[in-house]
Amino acid sequence: MDDASDTGNRAAAMPDDTTIQDTLIHDPDAGIERLLEIMRRLRDRETGCPWDIEQDFSSIAPYTIEEAYEVADAIDRSAWNELQGELGDLLLQTVYHTQMGEEAGHFSFQSVVHSISDKMVARHPHVFGNDPRDKSAEQQTADWEAIKAAERADKAQPGTLDGVAVGLPALLRAYKLQKRAARVGFDWPDASHVLDKIAEETAELVEARDRMDQDQVEEEFGDLLFVVANLARHLQIEPEAALRRANAKFIRRFQGVEARLAAQGKTPQDSDLAEMDALWDAVKRDERATSD
């Protein structure tokens, strides 16, 4: 057999890139590399999924936010059997963005991993460096914020409020903005002052409503929400979590009202406010009796 034919036979025997990739995609034990290859294949301009090919950072961002909230929802409900899947969905969002970043030449999955790893090491000198570990939680928080402030300065973000993401839900962003301001001393000394401010903002909202100035009503309502977010911080409550809990409670109790109406062969449309309010109070009493 001559050298040319021998080389050809060896080449024919070697798997091509597509075969290797197919093997990776269908290997359940391949880990993160499998997911990265699946996303690369979905985005392939010639053989990928038309929908996935059309997406960009802006179109995918809402899904990323939604998946993060679904993770939080599973945790709130202690739905541990669902949490694995929700975390997978959230991980897919990171993989999606990094694939698009690599295609555009901005970054890659590996560079993102390197970046966050470097950041975690730099922000924990008491674990990975020479700083002592015997610090109070308050001192560790102060050190953490000092490191983050230095990072913002390196990014030409010297302002106290710089770097608080604009895309956060408004209630959470209000909470974070006030938390930042409090770190430099711009804060009420205790929650009683915040409660006084809530009373003041409520009165201003009533005045605006009485004047029938809708633009002013919206402004005053926003001020009231902003101060309520500050009260949450003083009470060491994360306002988004508290509101999610309140939403869940409302759904549970209203469904209880619907169930009691259904037992009478009625729907909310067949009822009135007085009847539904009485049933609401009954549902509340039953909940409290059960929890006692």
Which descriptors would you attach to this protein?
292 residues, mainly alpha, Helix Hairpins, 14 helices, globular
Structure overview:
This protein is mainly alpha-helical. Among the domains are: 3-123, MazG-like (Helix Hairpins); 242-291, no CATH class. Helices cover 74% and strands 0% of the residues. It contains 14 helices and no strands. α11 (191-210) runs antiparallel to α12 (214-234). The longest helix has 25 residues, at 80-104. It is globular. Residues 10-14 have low confidence and may be disordered. It is an enzyme of class 3 (hydrolase).
In short:
With 292 residues, the chain is mainly α. The protein is built from 14 helices and no strands.
CATH architecture of the domain at 3-123: Orthogonal Bundle
Reading off the top of the CATH hierarchy, the class of the domain at 3-123 is best stated as Mainly Alpha
Tell me roughly what share of residues is in helical segments. over 70%
**What is the tally of helical segments?**
14
The biggest sheet amounts to:
none
Mean pLDDT rating: 89
Give the amount of beta strand, in percent: under 5%
Give the low-confidence spans: 10-14
Order of helices and strands: HHHHHHHHHHHHHH
What is the rounded Rg? 28 Å
Tell the overall outline.
globular
First CA to last CA: what distance?
A: 88 Å
Q: What quaternary form is this?
A: single chain
CATH homologous superfamily caption of the domain at 3-123: MazG-like
The count of β-strands is: 0
CATH topology of the domain at 3-123: Helix Hairpins
